[in-house]
């Protein structure tokens, strides 16, 4: 094999291999939307987001000020919804489950 071809092959492997792994990991994640109380400004939004992301097992947390909600993606083997609501409550923003997927 000519060097240029093996190089292209290596590059395509690098791109192709991580995708199925990421997809598998994604399927194991759980998404929950929390209704968050007390949020009044963008600083509140940031505080809630930080509190959620600090929870071990949380992959992503999107906090929406307008709808007073937080959409959290997490690994259910590492954490659960109770830990999420506890985290926002401890930060001063009590929350409850709005929607669970
Ligand atoms: Cu605020």
Reported CATH architecture: 2-Layer Sandwich
Low-confidence stretches: none
Percentage beta strand: 25-35%
The ordered H/E elements are HHEHEEHE
Mean pLDDT: 85
Number of strands: 4
List keywords for this structure.
binds copper (II) ion; 101 residues; alpha+beta; Alpha-Beta Plaits
Notes on the protein architecture:
The protein has a four-stranded antiparallel β-sheet, with helices on one face. The protein contains four helices and four strands, in the order H-H-E-H-E-E-H-E. It is globular. The mean pLDDT is 85. With 101 residues, the chain is α+β, with helices and mostly antiparallel strands. The longest helix has 14 residues. The protein has a single domain, classed as Alpha-Beta Plaits (2-Layer Sandwich), CATH 3.30.70. It is 46% helix and 26% strand. The site of copper (II) ion has 4 residues, from helix 3.
């Amino acid at each position: 094999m000519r060097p240029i071809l093996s190089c292209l092959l290596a590059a395509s492997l690098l791109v192709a291999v991580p995708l199925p792994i990421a997809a598998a990991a994604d399927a194991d994640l759980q998404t929950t939307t929390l209704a968050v109380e007390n949020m009044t400004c963008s600083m509140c939004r940031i505080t809630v987001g930080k509190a959620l992301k600090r929870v071990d097992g949380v992959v992503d947390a999107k906090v929406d000020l307008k709808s007073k909600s937080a959409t959290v993606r997490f690994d259910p083997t590492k954490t659960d919804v109770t830990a999420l609501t506890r985290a926002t409550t401890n930060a001063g923003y009590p929350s409850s489950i709005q929607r669970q997927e």
